[in-house]
Specification:
heterodimer; A: 578 residues; alpha/beta; Rossmann fold; 6-stranded parallel beta sheet; 21 helices; B: alpha+beta; Alpha-Beta Plaits; globular; binds thiamine diphosphate; binds magnesium ion
Chain lengths: 578, 87
Amino acid sequence: MTTKSRTGADCVIEGLRQAGTEIIFGLPGGAVLDMFSKLYHAEDMEFVLARHEQGATHMADGYARATGKVGVCLVTSGPGATNAVTGLATAYMDGIPMVCISGQVPSHMIGNDAFQEADTTGITRAVTKHNYLVHSADDLPRIIAEAFHVASTGKPGPVLIDIPKDVQRAETTAPACTTVNLAGYRPVSGFIPDQVKDLAAAINAAERPLLYTGGGIIAGNAAVELTALARKANLPVTTTLMGLGGFPETDSLALRMLGMHGTVTANRAVGECDLLISVGARFDDRVTGKISEFAPKAKKAHIDIDPTSIDKSVPVDYPVVGHVKDVLAALIDQVEARERRAWNDHLDELQAQFPLAYDESTDEVLPQYVIEMVYKVSGGEALIVTDVGQHQMWATHFFKYTRPRTFLSSGGLGTMGYGLPAAIGAQAAFPEKNVVVLAGDGGIQMCFQELVVAVEHGWNVNVMILNNGHLGMVRQWQEMFYDKEYSATVLKQRGRPANEKIPDSSRREFLPDFVKMAEAYGAVGLRVTKKEDVVPTLEKAFSTKAPVVVEYIVKEEENVYPMVPPGASLDEMICSMA
Amino acid sequence: MKHFITLLVENQPGVLARIVGLISGRGYNIETLNVGPTDDPTLSRMTMTVPGDDHVLEQVTKQLYKLVDVIEVTDLTARREDAQERD
Ligand SMILES: Cc1ncc(C[n+]2csc(CCOP(=O)(O)OP(=O)(O)O)c2C)c(N)n1
Ligand SMILES: [Mg+2]
């Protein structure tokens, strides 16, 4: 059978369609005009015009996290590709499936410092799971199919395909690619039964076991199995930032998040447990604190699809390589339904003794209060997307996540600017859901321009800006570890440090005016300065059929507690400044 | 300690950069490096020596294996030691 001749650009559209692509986020330029000209006629695929390529990549990422499907973005050569790097790195660190297609200057000009040339595969090598520079249109059907396969299997991640302009225009008769065959890429399938058997025996023998679960539960769609396992054997569960939503935080076995800003109970449980079972988590330094003192009394088990993740930072007694869903299903059959009354009661007592708390009596608007009210007013049903900073940590404390893919946050890279565009990507997938962005006054400015995308598509995101006048999280570190010297962390117009040479004046205290900015983009802008206005404003925002931005002027020097100082062990938690 | 690592890789542009980048990006120096053809023209054989901490190089070897273009990775260090002990 011969295949009809068509161009490389046609092959790209064909490949995207074959992979089930419904939506593409991006921004054009000279080097991708051929693909955009084909997209113009591809009405089965929605194109979302971002206003900055970083925004496009975060949208694709948010879409992927919310749906579990591969997020797709399309950017031009040179600056388009370099702008996409932050979004690729964000997705890479968190294992998010994404395919990014970039244009490249014509093959014969590569290496000549041509206009808008960048060594895109060189630049993105360290922030992608794999990347391609395409040399011939004949290879395109295969490469597109491979890219989706690599992005979505094993530990997922972003894949970039760099396509020179002449390759997009060249004719090819290469057939569509239906089977991927990569000699060097064999993602784990199945598991070794003996490894699971040994772990099950260890769980059955343990008096104080603890499940420590991460993003692998979400990526592996294993929340149901995790919950069944925990309940059958009465195993308490603590989750990482990436794992939130993988186990219902309303369950009595939930100890909530562990690590630097984890709960006292979760971190104490790590210190006291006799068996720590890591499931799809990677012993990240923000989780473990001082690694040599992490879970000192415990035998350690690690279930992961990525063999390189096992034994990476912590030596493990019970390694299990496999898909978490399959391994957990096998464990459910092999663990005994047994009570662990003493251990469970002890942890319940700790939870009662050390609840996550803030000053509820104050008249000031506390950021924690706002988030708790988001939880109450939304009935816990919102899809929360955070930016990065203090508000992100409070979002883990004062909203309880009960289902996977309802908490989206840049965990590994900690990318400020992530929240709004990622929320737009999630809202694109689920236009009817209540998607709420929790952001700070700093990070929201990094991708604010994408608000117009929400407005023009009628995607009614609710953007909550917790304005504390500072780059709050960095300010907190300066308060605690740098003698309160607020170097470069004041965003307000008064009280700036001398070295910035910004005179106090009669300017507005807060710039920019977020309400006016929202209005300038065609969204609804609201401001809250009084505690009693928090709930009514949320009710109004959630019932408004338009994107809404609410700026809360919150207490400035509020800190996130508990906190494990960087490099300290988890039992050295600071619970307040006093 | 010195590690002798041999790899079977796809014979494609960019593969060498990917491998060297992974090793140098972690602060390790490649002491010797040899790349040659195999009977299969689509594959190349690479051999290199990298001095460094055992635990970390074990990680590096695993990471190399994860690269899509890398088909086989063998750390020959242990075998060479055995041979030396027998000498
Ligand atoms: C792109 C980027 N630059 C710098 C940082 C370092 N950083 C981490 S948190 C933070 C402050 C964030 O301030 P804001 O958005 O106002 O949130 P807040 O902590 O006040 O809630 C900074 C600068 C980062 N995470 N990302
Ligand atoms: Mg702030």
